[in-house]
UniProtKB/TrEMBL annotation:
GO terms for cellular component: membrane; peroxisome. One of its GO terms (molecular function) is alcohol-forming very long-chain fatty acyl-CoA reductase activity. Catalyzes the reduction of fatty acyl-CoA to fatty alcohols. It is a multi-pass membrane protein. Its EC number is 1.2.1.84. InterPro entries: FAR, FAR_C, FAR_NAD-bd, NAD(P)-bd_dom_sf. This is Fatty acyl-CoA reductase. Belongs to the fatty acyl-CoA reductase family. The chain crosses the membrane at residues 358-377, 472-496.
Length: 497
């Protein structure tokens, strides 16, 4: 931390923050950034018991992440500023006890609401509880707070994905919140399951749909609060902070990239010409903290209004990258750094935007080889597993299919204005300037990060040797297939003469 404090650092000096979603990817980065770059008094985090692990166990596990190594070296006692509150987004008032709610009301200065279910296949009832009702309940708690200076709500750039062009404004709600809540309360889950396609209509998943409705909740309930909404696009690995290329989940892009890198898929359905809107995870965290500072600044302005500002946290507006170019860079990175120990095939990719052609490619390049692979395992007395892994990957691919075949246009005027309003020191410490991203370097670092942090592989020379072996096998099989096809067609020709 620099000796001379920046404007953002001065704002957060001695503040108490309530952060939800601290165990998620963005939440982890926010927690680390707050502890490393800000001199907070305290940070409350909402943690629930999960898979038999209590809050303290989950916090200990959370702080084992390598992203906290830097702050540990700067301040070994950093964890003393973290206080855990037991909660659950599926329960009223986020599952907080009356005593904990009183603590928040009396102590908290800033709220960052990151928590949500990001699953595309979440049941509508559960997604509504976690993304809509929890947001509403937290807003109602916030209205009772004695010293609230800022509230940042994390939404998604795809909360209005039923539109092609998305500005930093509120749009008409996909469904009246009260109507949705009454429906969830009245009908059982099985009936809701049957109704879901009719309810979400133009939205491909319950995540985007409920995020849309939650924005309407904020528009109505957030009036008078120093609140703003951030809408990140597809979140990728970190750009620089606190580690270069850090990623900790297989969601969406990361999962498919790992599948390609390990040779678990050799074809994808996508449109190479679309601008694929991605954003580094640390840029999202930095912008959230800058928005918190700006919320307070706006609330004290003589020209303040009750308007809630929305920020599209996107890259395509200023620094677009096309999906085809991104794929080629990733494959280039795979070939530079070598194969992982878990790789089963030489990484290559045949792409098409045509659904029928994709199915043909998938049948010959994925399904037949994997069935043969599993068949050989079974003969050797081993348990088949490749088709099972591939099936899970293909299910994920289908859910993400719309993002790789449809083009959206996002405006980011508010985000640009926010960044330009920062001092030079704040721009350096809380960077989210997408114009300066070097995409080739970023994506190569991203590929390296996935290999290290997701696949847990640090093979160097051995990885390059394995890649070379896989390449020879790959070329040999291509020659074999071409030879078999040549003589098969020749034989058919001779028979039919």
């Amino acid at each position: 931390m620099s000796k001379k404090k920046t404007s953002i650092q001065k704002f957060y000096e001695g503040k108490v923050i309530f952060l939800t979603g601290a165990t998620g990817f963005i939440g982890k980065l926010l927690l680390e950034k707050c502890l490393r770059s800000l001199n907070l008094k305290k940070i409350y985090i909402l943690v629930r018991v999960k898979k038999g692990k209590d809050q303290n166990t989950r916090l200990k596990k959370l702080l084992e992440s390598p992203i906290y190594d830097k702050v540990k070296s700067l301040n070994p006692n950093f964890f003393e500023k973290i206080s855990i509150l037991n909660g659950d987004l599926t329960c009223p008032n986020l599952g907080l006890s009356d005593e904990d709610i009183k603590i928040l009301i009396n102590e908290v200065d800033c709220i960052i609401h990151c928590a949500a279910t990001v699953s595309f296949v979440e049941h509508l009832s559960l997604a509504t509880k976690m993304n809509v009702i929890a947001s509403r309940d937290l807003l109602r708690i916030a209205k009772k707070m004695h010293n609230l200076h800022s509230y940042v709500h994390v939404s998604t750039a795809y909360s209005n994905m039923n539109r092609n062009e998305i500005d930093e404004i509120f749009y008409e709600s996909a469904m009246e919140p009260d109507k949705l809540l009454e429906m969830i309360k009245t009908f059982n889950d099985d009936y809701i399951t049957d109704l879901t396609p009719k309810i979400i209509k133009d939205f491909p998943n319950t995540y985007a749909f409920t995020k849309n409705v939650s924005e309407t909740i904020i528009k109505r309930e957030g009036v008078g609060l120093p609140i703003s909404i951030i809408r990140p696009s597809i979140v990728m690995a970190t750009h620089k902070e606190p580690l270069v290329g850090f990623v900790d989940n297989y969601l969406t892009v990361s999962g498919m990239a790992v599948a390609v890198g390990l040779g678990l898929t050799r074809t994808l359905r996508l449109d190479e010409n679309i601008v694929f809107d991605i954003i580094p995870a640390d840029f999202v965290a930095n912008q959230i903290l800058a928005m918190g500072w700006n919320n307070y600044r706006k609330s004290k302005s003589a020209y303040q209004s009750n308007n809630i500002t929305l920020y599209n946290c996107v890259s395509g507006y200023e620094n677009p990258i096309h999906l085809g170019y991104m794929i080629n860079l990733f494959l280039h990175a795979c070939h530079i750094f070598g194969a992982a120990k878990k790789s089963i095939w030489y990484p290559f990719l045949l792409v098409t935007s045509n659904e029928t052609l994709y199915k043909i490619y998938a049948f010959f390049l994925n399904i037949i080889p994997f069935y043969l692979f599993d068949f050989c395992l079974k003969i050797m007395g081993k348990k088949p597993f490749i088709m099972n892994i591939y099936s899970r990957f293909d299910s994920m691919r289908q859910l993400f299919d719309v993002f790789m075949t449809k083009q959206w246009y996002f405006h980011a005027k508010n985000t640009n204005q926010l960044y330009n309003s920062l001092s030079d020191d704040d721009k350096e410490l809380f960077n989210f300037d997408v114009k300066k991203i070097d995409w080739p370097k970023f994506l190569i670092n991203n590929a390296t990060g996935m290999k290290i942090y997701l696949v847990k592989d640090t093979s160097g020379e051995s990885g390059l040797k394995k890649l070379k072996r896989l390449k020879y096998i790959h070329l040999l099989l291509i020659c074999l297939v071409i030879t078999v096809l040549y003589y098969s067609f020749k034989l058919i020709y001779l028979v039919l003469r």
